[in-house]
Amino acid sequence: MRKVYLDHGATTPLDEEVLEAMMPFFKEYYGNPSSVHSFGREVKKEVEGARERIAKNMGVEPEEVYFTSGGTEADNLALIGTARALKEKGNHIITSAIEHHAVLDTCAWLKKEGFEVTALPVDEYGMVSPGDVEEAIKDNTILVSIIYANNEVGTIQPIEEIGRITREKGVLFHTDAVQSVGNLPVNVESMSVDLLAISAHKFYGPKGIGALYVRKGTRINRLAHGGGQEQGMRAGTENVPGIIGMAKAMELAVSQEEEITPGIKNLRDRLTQGLLSIEDVRLNGHPTKRLPGNVNVSFEYIEGEAMLLSLDYKGIGASSGSACSSGSMHASHVLLAMGIPDQTAHGSVRFTLGRHTTGEDIDYVLEVVPEVVERLRSMSSIYQGRGEK
User: Fold this and answer.
1) Burial of 224 (0-12, 13-18, 19+ CB in 10 A)
2) Which of helix, strand or coil describes residue 17?
3) Which of 9, 179, 234, 275 is at 20 to 30 A from 385, Cα to Cα?
4) CA–CA distance, 177 with 148 (Å, rounded to integer)
5) What is the per-residue DSSP string for 345-383?
6) Cβ–Cβ under 8 Å, residues 146 and 96
7) What CA–CA distance (Å, rounded) separates 133 from 328?
8) What's the Cα-to-Cα distance from 327 to each of 39, 154, 223, rounded to whole Å?
9) DSSP tag of 7
10) Closest to 250 (Cα-Cα) out of 214, 184, 205
11) Do residues 199 and 70 lie in contact, with contact meaning Cβ atoms separated by under 8 Å?
12) Which fold has domain 4-11+257-382?
């Protein structure tokens, strides 16, 4: 049976060049970077070299890059760390209704700690209005956190406009850019962001390693206490193989972006057109301002989970939203925030393409999906009675 992986938004396969770069640091170079002997010093040198390469590809200084266990920890550090550091200045945080749970759940926790949180609405495409951001800023606002590109529907936010507003107002600006490296330009100066989170496994790097960019001079408190690693920001022995792998993965992703992205977009558009040719299917998210490999559609009269299981039986891997929410019986908070009815939101499926996706893969999916839709709808009493009053 043919296997087609269309869940790159959840995770990407590890690149062979990345694995090759990591291997010596599992066995040959095993020293602790904090050790003063030669075994530790040689590894420390490689870790700092990796930090420099990552910083260069983001247009920042090496000392502004802090390694974390992934995007979730980076988001937590950005929000909780700055909120605690600035609580004497104010207690108001602005975010959006369509953020990743790493941000939304952290904001919910901060509310319990006495902080005020404003979750801005979005339009039918999942877009945040810069005007709404500006209007929401108050004298006690200390932080704005808006995702760069939504992980479920792929909508790309007007980050540069929002960044100009926050910079003028003197408010810190954080963005979750986990879905963006290798798909979109990530330059903190043009974006005017103060904090930015990334995760290696979203751009063909290893799982368990990420980073938070913190603009020099930004006040932020540590979350993990213990050793003095990461300039005292994050205690704990560094994930050396992961750091080396992330640096290599970012170099490859950034250098290949212009070459690979047009092909992924073409395949995305082919898949989108083919799916929309099926009766009662709608595209979720912005039609053009979206991630190059993201196709999120709702199949009316079908449960998304049933659709996923049927596709999996045919060898096709997709998702119903973010991997962090898989298994949940609740409709996507992103789709509901966009004004999509609950029943329609329950029938959503996210296909996310990657650099290894082929035209034959898309042909196979477009061959399988109509058959699955027809079969599932034939078992749906709602579909059978849709014309009745």
Assistant:
1) middle
2) helix
3) 275
4) 5
5) HHTEEEEE--TT--HHHHHHHHHHHHHHHHHHHHT-HHH
6) yes
7) 30
8) 45, 21, 29
9) B
10) 205
11) yes
12) Aspartate Aminotransferase, domain 1 (3.90.1150)
pLDDT in the model for residue 327: 53
* Known catalytic residue at 324: yes
pLDDT at site 328? 55
**Phi/psi at 40 (5° precision):** -75, -40
Alpha-carbon distance 43 to 24, whole Å? 11
Candidate list 184, 283, 324, 336, residue with the active-site label: 324
* Confidence (pLDDT) at 337: 97
Looking at 3.40.1080.10, 3.40.50.720, 3.40.225.10, 3.40.640.10, the CATH number of the domain 16-252 comes to 3.40.640.10
Series of mean pLDDT values for 10-residue runs along the chain (389 residues): 96 98 97 95 97 97 98 98 97 98 98 97 98 98 98 98 98 98 94 98 98 97 91 93 98 96 98 97 97 97 93 96 57 96 94 98 98 92 62
Q: Helix, strand, or coil here: 362?
A: helix
Find out whether 159 and 188 touch, Cβ atoms under 8 Å.
Answer: no
Q: Please tell me whether residue 103 adopts helix, strand or coil conformation.
A: helix
Strand order, beta sheet including 195-199: 65-68, 210-214, 195-199, 172-176, 141-145, 92-96, 116-120
What sign results for the dihedral spanned by CA atoms 328, 330, 331, 332? negative
Domain range summary for the chain, segments of one domain joined by +:
4-11+257-382, 16-252
Provide the total of helices (H) and of strands (E) in the chain, helices listed first.
14, 12
C-alpha span between 31 and 238 (Å, rounded): 11
The neighbour count for residue 127, using CB atoms within 10 Å, is 19
Exposed / middle / buried, residue 113 (Cβ in 10 Å: 0-12, 13-18, 19+): exposed
Q: What is the DSSP string of 218-257?
A: -----SS-SS-TGGGTS-S---HHHHHHHHHHHHHHHHHH
Under DSSP, is residue 110 helix (H, G, I), strand (E, B) or coil?
helix
Rounded CA-CA distance 45/29 in Å is 11
Backbone φ and ψ of 79, nearest 5°: -75, -55
Q: What is the pLDDT of residue 324?
A: 55
CA separation for the pair 241, 19 (Å, rounded): 9
The two three-digit tokens of residue 194, written as one number: 């103060």
Q: Output the CA–CA distances (angstroms, integers) from residue 127 to 15, 133, 157, 180, 339, in the order listed.
A: 32, 12, 6, 16, 12
Element (H, E) at 82: helix 71-85
Enumerate the β-bridge partners of residue 145.
Answer: 174
